[in-house]
Amino acid sequence: MNDFVQFFSDSDATNVSTSIKMLLLLTVLSLAPAILILMTSFARIVIVLSFVRTALATQQMPPNQVIVGLALFLTFFVMAPTFQEVNEKALTPLFAEEISLDEAYEQMSIPFKEFMSKHTRQKDLELFIRYNKAEQPESLEDIPLTMLVPAFALSEIKTAFQMGFMVFIPFLVIDMIVASVLMSMGMMMLPPVMISLPFKILLFVLVDGWYLIIKSLLQSFS
């Protein structure tokens, strides 16, 4: 009788453990979009590409689907070494039952922390450390993700806006020149955007603008 009760107790414990693991897996999957956006290079890339479209004043060309799709593939390209390290150090041992779930989480967070810390400004990280009234971390492993992720996102947005500003400058010059020419010709009722748009597209094509933008984005993560 005791053996029978013990069998069902062990079965209940196994079922509870499996249910918890499934719950944790579903939680991670639900947070996957946020992880992709805030813990990778996606935010910087998609913001810069959006700035390019706004500077060109081409409305919805290229469409949002193209910009997001290109940003996703560029993100996978930039993050490939990090994803490979996560797979080798965390996922493969976890699936082989060589490490526990807690150990896999720790091993999985290290490559992301290394990537994010490389592109996080010290000032942004110190902001969240001071706000949380936490002690100064002695090593990268001591920095919690709750502080590093928002600091990294803040740094990425600032960097993206700096790059976007540099993209805007040549197109702004074209707009100013076209507006001055139209005003000097007395054509004040003609919107300068209609005239400057073909020149901006022509300039962007002649200098191979998309190549330069993508090259600058990739170099900014090197």
Give me a quick take on this structure:
By secondary structure, the chain is mainly α. The chain has ten helices and no strands.
Keywords for this entry:
222 residues, mainly alpha, 10 helices, 80% helix, 0% strand, disordered N terminus, flagellum, membrane, transport, transmembrane helix
Characterise the protein shown here.
With 222 residues, the chain is mainly alpha-helical. It has ten helices and no strands. Helix 6 runs parallel beside helix 8 (145-184). The longest helix has 40 residues, at 145-184. It is elongated and about 75 Å long. Mean pLDDT is 78; it is low at 1-13.
SSE sequence, one letter per element: HHHHHHHHHH
Percent of residues in β-strands: under 5%
Helix content: over 70%
Tell me the major beta sheet. Answer: none
> Span between N and C termini?
66 Å
Q: Could you state the oligomeric state of the chains shown? A: single chain
In terms of per-residue confidence, which ranges show pLDDT below 50 for 5 or more consecutive residues? 1-13
- Per DSSP E runs of 2 or more residues, the count of β-strands stands at 0
Mean pLDDT: 78
The shape is elongated
Class from secondary-structure proportions: mainly alpha
Give me the Rg, rounded. 25 Å
Counted by DSSP, the helix tally is 10
Topology at a glance:
Elements: H1 2-30, H2 32-38, H3 42-56, H4 64-78, H5 80-95, H6 101-118, H7 122-131, H8 145-184, H9 192-206, H10 209-220
Helix pairs in contact: 3-4, 3-8, 4-5, 5-6, 6-8, 7-8, 8-9
Function: Plays a role in the flagellum-specific transport system.
Subcellular location: Cell membrane; Bacterial flagellum basal body
Protein name: Flagellar biosynthetic protein FliP
